[in-house]
Backbone:
């Protein structure tokens, strides 16, 4: 069902394209030997190249090129063996050279595609227009002093990949799914850590609206949106704003806007008339970037299994549902955890425990799966205790909670608490006899046809056995004794 | 292609160069002379000629991904007209 917004003049369709800036994982910057680590003291990771001292020349970091190519391959995109660096000229305090080295006419990566999965289980292909390499700017701090702006150039010159989508996105949900999927692919590839809080991944959101069947109308660009939730909100509030402008007889003007997350609105950035006159030209300090096709192939051969392939394998090899598979492959550590637990065990059971009890415990304790209180090996050992009938499923939940609390091994907990399941039929028979003896009227009702009471008897027997009875044996015994 | 005085004023502004109004005609004339010469070059038929990217047969040099620089804030701040602690300080820019 296509997403539309109902206005006074009928239904409106939303058209969205995203430009995502992804910080490349590398030790050193794109054109200098200064470090890229987050959170260092101001201006402590700056070379004279990054500070644009006169006469300093850029030298390209080969690993950043490799990372861009890996990302292009991961997006099923064309790799351009010839690309070029251009200067994008603009004046700002945190851009000391007065230009950003970017790739304008000839990006390193061309058209690709990202498949997104939606809540209703459907999938859509979103086109990627291009990916290019460029430098990040420095960081301005406007709130430290009444009349001055402070500038820290640690980020200046760090490699970014700008990944531009086609205007194929049609709803806030799809915009969120696109960023989530892109981030997942980048993390699998190890080319960007995807950390939106630290600014390693930021999105510029292009939004326009139109009536069904119309060509595109004027779009606005919302700059630097730094969380998936905000991307989705920004699409919605900007679409509503534009619909109101059109329906009030006005005209949407192409401009750059800011998303105000506190107010849930977008507002115009005081549009400077010169803002988009970048006067691009080829950077004369750098030769064209020529790649050897054999080198590209070695990178391709070393790519990890990506989320789409892994998801397909989880569905085929483990018989999981598409939904569960999607949840498990979204983050590589989760997929790895699952595969460790599922090895030699029931995959469906492993998936249920991970997406249910484990995710619940991680949420509750605010921990990630990488520092999970319950290791994959321990969860596996717990499942073994269920399958060899040492404990039943209900007791297993209790053992699991204690594993979360204490980090102890499941068999140690079962041992210490005496939770071993009772499979001794004489003990079960005795418990069933006692329950029937204590509830003669209910036993009579059951025998006269009130089948629903069966559950009552099983429950009472389990209670009497402190939950440790083997459920199948208890069922059998109750059936036999009441029959 | 030829530039009028308004275009020259705008180019100067983008480049953050202050040009007095009475200097604009002279500057426009100089720039137009350069553009005229480029127009003349543009008459050469270069269809099928690979662009010359340098006088020497060189390929773009790559550096290894190693941290070899930085760690000297004093040096990079040495030319700063103003600073606060380890930051550059500039007149407040508010968007």
Residues:
């Amino acid at each position: 069902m296509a997403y539309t917004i109902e206005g006074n003049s009928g239904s409106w369709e939303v058209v969205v394209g995203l430009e995502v800036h992804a910080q490349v994982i590398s030790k050193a910057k794109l054109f200098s030997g200064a470090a890229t680590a987050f959170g260092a003291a101001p201006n402590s990771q700056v070379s004279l190249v990054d500070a644009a001292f006169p006469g300093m020349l850029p030298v390209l970091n080969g690993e950043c090129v490799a990372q861009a190519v890996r990302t292009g391959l991961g997006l099923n995109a064309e790799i351009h063996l010839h690309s070029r660096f251009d200067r994008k000229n603009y004046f700002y305090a945190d851009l000391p050279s007065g230009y950003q080295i970017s790739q304008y006419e000839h990006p390193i990566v061309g058209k690709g595609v990202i498949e997104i999965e939606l809540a209703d289980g459907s999938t859509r292909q979103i086109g990627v227009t291009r990916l290019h390499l460029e430098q990040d700017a420095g960081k301005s701090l406007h709130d430290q002093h009444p009349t001055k702006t402070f500038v820290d150039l640690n980020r200046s010159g760090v490699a970014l990949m700008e990944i531009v989508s086609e205007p194929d996105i049609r709803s806030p949900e799809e915009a969120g799914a696109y960023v989530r999927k892109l981030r997942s692919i980048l993390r699998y590839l190890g080319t960007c850590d995807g950390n939106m809080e630290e600014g390693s991944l930021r999105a510029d959101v292009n939004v326009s609206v139109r009536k069904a069947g119309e060509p595109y109308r004027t779009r606005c660009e919302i700059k630097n949106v730094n969380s998936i939730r905000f991307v989705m909100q920004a699409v919605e509030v900007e679409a509503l704003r534009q619909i109101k402008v059109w329906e009030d007889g006005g005209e949407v003007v192409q401009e750059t806007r800011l998303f105000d997350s506190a107010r849930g609105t977008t507002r115009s950035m005081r549009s400077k008339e010169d803002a988009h006159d970048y006067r691009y030209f080829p950077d004369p300090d750098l030769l064209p970037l020529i790649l050897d096709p054999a080198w590209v192939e070695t990178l391709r051969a070393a790519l990890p299994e990506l989320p789409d392939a892994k998801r397909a394998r989880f569905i085929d090899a483990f018989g999981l549902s598409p939904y569960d598979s999607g949840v498990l492959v979204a983050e590589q550590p989760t997929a790895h955890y699952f595969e460790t637990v599922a090895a030699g065990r029931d995959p469906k059971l492993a998936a249920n425990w991970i997406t249910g009890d484990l995710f619940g415990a991680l949420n509750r304790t605010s921990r990630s799966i990488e520092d999970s209180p319950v290791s994959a090996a321990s969860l596996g050992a717990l499942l073994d205790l269920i399958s060899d009938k040492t404990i039943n499923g209900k007791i297993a939940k209790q053992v699991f909670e204690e594993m979360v609390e204490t980090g102890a091994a499941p068999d140690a907990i079962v041992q210490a608490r005496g939770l071993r399941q009772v499979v001794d039929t004489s003990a079960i028979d005795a418990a069933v006899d006692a329950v029937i003896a204590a509830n003669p009227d209910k036993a009579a009702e059951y025998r006269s046809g009130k089948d629903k009471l069966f559950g009552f008897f099983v429950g009472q027997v389990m209670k009497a056995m402190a939950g440790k009875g083997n459920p199948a044996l208890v069922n059998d015994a109750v059936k036999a004794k009441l029959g | 292609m030829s530039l009028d005085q308004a275009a020259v004023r705008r180019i100067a502004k983008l480049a953050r160069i202050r040009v007095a109004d009475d200097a604009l005609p002279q500057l426009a004339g100089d720039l137009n002379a350069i553009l005229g010469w480029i127009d003349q070059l543009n008459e050469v038929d270069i269809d099928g000629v690979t662009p010359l990217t340098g006088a020497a047969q060189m390929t773009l040099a790559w550096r290894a991904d190693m941290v070899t620089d930085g760690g000297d804030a004093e040096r990079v701040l040495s030319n700063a007209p103003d600073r606060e602690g380890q930051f550059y300080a500039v007149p407040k820019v508010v968007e």
